[in-house]
Each structure stands twice: as structure tokens, then as C-alpha cells.
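=== RUN LOG ===
request id: a7f3
mode: sequence -> structure
chains: 1
length: 225
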Amino acid sequence: MPVIMFANVLIGSFSGLLVPEFSRLLAGKNYNRLKTVCDTIFKITFIFSICVTAIFIIFANELSLMIYQSIEAGKWIRILSPLIFFIYIDNIIDNMLKGINEQVSVMVCNIIDLLVTISIIFFIVPILSMYGYILSIFVSELLNFTISSIQLKKKINYSINWRKFILRPVLACLISYLFIKILNIQFSSFSLSTIIQIALFVLLYLCFMFISDRKRVYRKLKEFY
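=== RESULT ===
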């Protein structure tokens, strides 16, 4: 978990700023701006989270060898990787809810999540051992994400553009992965090879995302000039 949560530092660095910003917009009854900011934050977080998820899925074994000097952890990193998306988005949603004066709802959600997790650990983990623990993490994060999303939807009628927010990033990840495989960059240092491959993957991903959204970028540039 510490490994897959590492990139959450970047999310946490600005998610806390959403609390005063959403409070300000709510106090000013600027509901349209509230929805616009919500949609924009979701787009950025979706794109970022999908990229990080793909990195941990693709380079799980390499990262395991670099960090733990063992390939065993690679399996667990890859299994837990899909949770990255939900963990990062849930972090954003919780701060949005706090910003619109829904702290009690966040607390209730966390209590429900805690009770369910404790129940799974008590009844399931002794039977399934490590897989039971993994199950408890998945159930906990997905439950928290689902409840928080429903709570936010009731307060802010945000919209998720599945094609732009999910389909495009996933396709960009697949294309970037194919390019990495074709180039097959290798150096004498295993760690250096892995770092270069991940950096190149991120660069290609950002390029493909830019190309896929070039019309909006050009429109913004025209408005600026």
C-alpha cells in the first residue's frame, strides 16, 4: 500500500485547497462555477489516476525489484493497482464534500466503511488469509468511493464524460505501452532502464492526451491571444 499510495502526495497537495475554494463558491451561491470546478478537477484527477494505475500495472515487477529487491511484491502491487484510481478520486471527493459543509456525511461514510472492513477482517481474513486482507481493502475503498460519489452527486450535479475522462486516457496508456515495448530501451543498470521507461511512458501518455484534446487546446490559445 505505501508504494501505490506514493503518488497520492501530488493529489493531496491540492485536494486540501478544494475545501476553502468550494466553501467560498457555496457561500457566494455560485453554483454554476461550483459545477464547472468540480468537472475540471475530476478530469485532471481521472487522467492522472489512470496514468499512475497503468504505471503500477505495467511496471509492477520492475518496481518490486527496485524497491524490495524481490519480485514477490510485484504480484501484490499489480493486484492492488486498480485501487489507485478509486483511492485518488475518493480523496478529491471527500475534500469537495467538506468544502460544501458535508463533514458529517464524510464521517458517516468513514464509519460505515470502518465497520464493514472490521467485519471482513474478523470473519474472512482467518479463512482466506492474505487474500482476505486484499478483499477487505478492495471492499473498503470501493464502498467508500461509491457512498462518497452518491453524496456528492446529490449536492452537485457534476457530469463525467466517460469518453474524455476514461476512454481516452486508457487508450493513451495502451498506445504508450506498445511504443515502450517496440522501443525496448535497455541500459546496463536495471534501475536506470526502469526509470527511463517509466519517464518515456509518461511523456508519450501526455503527448497522446494533448493530441486527442488538441481542438480544445487550440481554442484556449486563440482565446488567450
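=== NOTES ===
The chain has one domain: 8-100+159-224.
The chain has a mean pLDDT of 83.
=== END ===
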